[in-house]
Amino acid sequence: MDLRILVFSPLIFSMLLLLPIFSGKSVLIRRFAKIFASLHFLYSISFLLFFDNTSTDNYITEITFFGQKWLGTLGVSLSMSVDSISLLMVILTSLLFLLVCVASKGVIKTKHSLYYALIFILETSVLGVFCSRDMFEFFLFWELELVPMYFLISLWGSGLAKKSAMKFLLYTFIGSLFMLCGFLMLYNFNFIAVSELTADIYNITFNYEAAPIYLQVIASILVILGFAVKLPIVPFHSWLPSAHVDAPTPVSMLLAGILLKMGAYGIIRFNIQMLPDAFLILCPYLAVFAFVNIVYAAVLAYGQTDIKKIVAYSSISVMGLVLLGFCSANSLGICGSIFLMIAHGIISAGLFFIVGVVYSKTGTRQIIQLGGLASVMPNLSTFAVILTLGSIGTPLLISFAGEFLVFFGAFVSSFLNSYLIQIISLSSILVLVLSAIYTLKLVHSVFYGNLPEQCRMLNDIAVHEFLILFTLSVLTIILGIIPMCIIDILVPSVQMITGTFGG
Amino acid sequence: MGFITDIFNSLLSEVCLLLTVFVLAIFSMFYNVKYHKISKWIALFGVSAALVSLKFLQLEPVYYSFSEAIISDTFTVFIKALILISSFIIILLSKKNVTKRNHKTFQFYLLLISAVLSSLFVVSSNDFLMLTVSLEFLSFSIYFLIAYKKGYNSKESSFKYIVTNSFSTAIYLFGVSYLYGITSSFNFNAINDYFMQNEPTLLYSFAIIFISLGLLFKLAILPFANWVLDVYEGSATSVAAFIATVPKIAVLAILARLLCFIMGNSFELPVILICLAVVTAFWANSLAIRQKSILRIFACSSSANASYMLFALSLMSVYNLSTVLFYLTTYIFMNLGIFAAIIVLENSNYALSLQSLRGLAYSNPIFTLAFAICLFGLAGFPITSGFIAKLYLLSAIVRSGVVFMPLLIALVITMVIACYYYTKIVKTMFEKENKNINEILPNRTSSPSVTLYVCALITVIIGIMPAMLIELCKFVAYNL
Fold first, then answer.
1. By CB neighbour count within 10 A (0-12 exposed, 13-18 middle, 19+ buried), where does A415 fall?
2. How many domains, in total, are found in chain B?
């Protein structure tokens, strides 16, 4: 049980994949990658065994170089630990990377060793983000994630992939530099307050003499800008549709399934946990942003003709709901948001995979050219129905519990301007009808109706595709029926965080 | 005997270089064509001897020599070591660049070594006379180095350099004369003592603003930055590498010393320098976006990087100085790596435009990897030293006060622009171009390629284990 092994084994494995003995042996590489990813998933599950969900210091460990800290003189160290939020994210990450390795079969046709190496470097950086205990370590992994992602989109993507990849890179980079400024402010406040250099997330303390509230608000805004790009919150979202559309299917799965969650995770860790007072001031404004996110993305999704774009915009809409849950600033809403993050990780990966399968079989993603696929691909359409119903929050499927908690939390939120939040939560519930409309339209127009002439000879999905969708659908159903198995794990950690609000 | 002691205690490395210059001069008179191959070895030997001799200098807190005109302390030794290491690398890079067109290699190395020699003098000067003379010496060597390449462009850029430099020198001397008028001394210590006892006046602020503006020329900060694009493109690539590193290190060092001692009493100066730095960062980075030639892009990038360092340096504190030293050290290795890569391309007859890099990733993966590491380092991505350097530099600026937050944010936005064009170069190397796809760079073990790999390796190693270098920089900064 060592987090260092968990986080860095994908990196080491990716270096192995780049060795010349693997060059050109695509099947061998894919098999190795799948085996490694399954082992990694099992290993990450095993972290649940000795896990104490009331503690923040589970499996605490630190990387040292010859007995020295990484940046000892600055009080920055590469220390890691997990609490229940990060552990769930780690398990979700590990699961999705396993599925992505399986899903890459047939989609990725060139440069296999480089592809899998980049995928595993990405896995290390994402896991590092979730496990890090130190602000600058968090930032290191956050930035590290950009490089493999850039290459994954630009080298294996289609259409304007290079441009989209550059857009993704620049948006995230500018956000993360603002975030860095915010982190440096936090670091500096702490230095002024206790005159000890430390960047440990759990040790940073403020006192109001060192950091008056307006400075905390500035720091909070700077930090949230970085996460706003990743989440994405609406004015900063325009990288997402293009990146999704041009990325290859497995990379879209990762982008929607995991990378968006990094932004939400960052808001929990930094804005809510470390700057609670500033967050309470920002809450009403963020709630408005969240509402705009939900409505705007839903309306845009309805107007799209490209099915991948519909799914991409629906992700933005769901992330708006997650943000609304955070704005409720109570443990119900935050629990709901985290649950919704997990739900969306599972469902959006599935939906993107379905879109990818449809595209690879029919060669088009335009709604007008598709239809009636249910008659030739019954299995695919069954899974598609399960997942889309899951995504719109049908009871007994996964999103329902999350959405319910988010709205409930937002409605009972007792903090500043609570009327505003109640109005917003009520109207967002109405907006959810929109999301039902566009997702059902998607299912209807792709899988039902008239089957176009050129689609009559299509076969149903292959075994590996079936396995992926089966796993995701089973998770959707099981977690929908018994959401408490995750929420029970979450509650103590979330209560510890919301405890700082004093309510 | 005081003379000999002074030399042994503070000027050993300068003497080594001076002897090298003499040897090169003598050889160039008699064996110019016949033995031109050994000129590189003589120069390398001289620089390494100078590097080794740094170890024997007297480092008791501060050692003054030649009636306090020369200073020798930990800081100068650190900076001199940086200068000598980078000139060592540049000599390694410049062989083919020089010999390709003519055989006057002795003259080239003679000029190069004398430029290095004069920048060492700039670093160790403790007196405005000494500083002025060595700055002029440095500029003169650089005039000829720029004009050394054949063709019209190099002459033009050399002339540009001369004109701009004369202008900036005039401004600098104007400031010095004011300062002399106030304090009636050229010596830094004496001037410092004077302002310990007397209140600084407005005239003093004017004087130091002029002095620092004059010094900004070599850093290519805005009022005197227009030369930088043409000069980088017009001169031989190794000379461009030289201009991008050695004079910059020297001038940043002397600026740090001046800001630390005699320029520290003014409130206006830091504000002006910071504003200039931010404006330059914007100017240089946005100029670089549109450039087609790689050399011109890196001219802009060098100007921008100098402005980041100037920003942190003008908010003078020990912590800031240590971050600047760290940034400088990492920047030099990344920059020399990039110039090594450019020289490799140039030696294999690539056109130095962005488009000619297409498809390089598929024909030369290892070269591309090393080049990309240096580029990502400059952009500030993790696992490279550039990431740590950026983090450390920004932490210093944030620590200097909340007042600077808006300017800091402006600086950060320019860093994003910089990230764009660095990434664009990497992107171009990954673009498919069937024509070039089999054009493998010859001679993988030539000294520029090895330099590139070594620089990339250093960049990664510092990025993973930065603690030792940070400790060193803190120690050095604390001792200034």
1. middle
2. 1
